[in-house]
Specification:
single chain; alpha/beta; Rossmann fold; Dihydrodipicolinate Reductase, domain 2; 6-stranded parallel β-sheet; 5-stranded mixed β-sheet; 7 helices; 11 strands; elongated; binds nicotinamide-adenine-dinucleotide; EC 1.17.1.8; NADP
Length: 243
């Protein structure tokens, strides 16, 4: 049995993780902590893994506390910077524990990025359409930016064919590393992305649809099972998917 604690347990993601952990035959939910609770050996109640879905402003401190209290960490909270990655690596080293930080726990999204990277060298054209609910405050999504980066690396600087000479309103989308990215905000949607690849006479479309928070749970559970076997800091769920 893997003993799991959840920090941010009263939040939308945290509550969903608590439920998912409770349903696993090889896991035991030993602590639900939220704002105002101290994170220490006693409150973590022997947790081998602590899952963190808090808020960007506190995540460095909550994850550090869990590591220092002797627990590996699986982190979904966003807002990490290269400096924070460096600092948390040192905390993990000092504690002798591992931390896995994944900007996206949805298996379909992670696989889409990997497939896009694989396809990129073989197509002339590549464009991304990301589609989200209208309450999302940033555009484009972090996943779209990461996907554009993966495609760009695969294309080795090859420009996307495009004869557009006039586009005063930016109808051709934003360009990330030369890859056009189009953001749709539509009532009724959750989190979706299409990657379009084109060659003369053929098209490849990759599509991921995350309909609700459940979509993240298989990825979070996988991370809980794998984090003990990693070393120090690992960024991205793909690292534990054997890709
Ligand atoms: P939320 O606001 O519903 O929940 C956050 C919870 O953290 C709240 O219950 C809050 O009380 C708690 N919290 C705040 N400060 C705390 C502290 N010091 N100690 C303990 N708990 C504290 O937010 P959410 O929708 O559940 O999202 C949480 C985070 O997860 C966000 O950063 C979000 O962007 C991210 N997220 C990541 C993924 C992924 O796949 N990586 C998926 C969805 C959301």
């Amino acid at each position: 049995m893997i003993k799991v604690a959840v920090v941010g347990a009263s939040g939308r993601m945290g509550a969903t993780v608590c439920e998912a952990v409770s349903q696993q035959e090889d896991m035991e939910l030993v602590a639900r902590l939220d704002s105002g609770d101290s994170i220490d050996e006693q409150s973590l109640a022997g947790a081998e893994v602590t899952v963190d879905f808090t808020v960007p402003a506190v995540a460095f401190d909550t994850v550090s506390a869990a590591l220092r209290a002797g627990s590996h960490s699986v982190v979904g909270t966003t807002g990490w910077t290269p400096e924070k990655y460096e600092q948390i690596t040192r905390v993990a080293e000092q504690a002798g524990k591992n931390v896995l930080i994944a900007p996206n726990f949805a298996l379909s999204a992670v696989l889409t990025m990997k497939f896009a990277e694989l396809a990129a060298p073989y197509f002339d054209s590549a464009e991304i359409i990301e589609m989200h609910h209208p309450n999302k405050v940033d555009a484009p999504s972090g996943t779209a930016i990461a996907t554009a980066g993966a495609i760009s690396a695969g294309r080795a600087g090859k420009p996307v064919p495009d004869a557009t000479e006039s586009d005063p309103e930016g109808a051709r989308g934003a360009k990330y590393e030369g890859v056009p990215v189009h953001a749709v905000r539509l009532r009724g949607l959750n989190a979706h992305q299409e990657v379009l690849f084109g060659n003369p006479g053929e098209q490849l479309v990759l599509r991921t649809d995350c309909f609700d928070r459940e979509s993240f749970m298989p990825g979070v559970m996988l991370a809980c099972r794998k984090v003990g076997g990693l070393a120090g800091l690992t960024i991205g769920l793909d690292k534990v998917m054997g890709l």
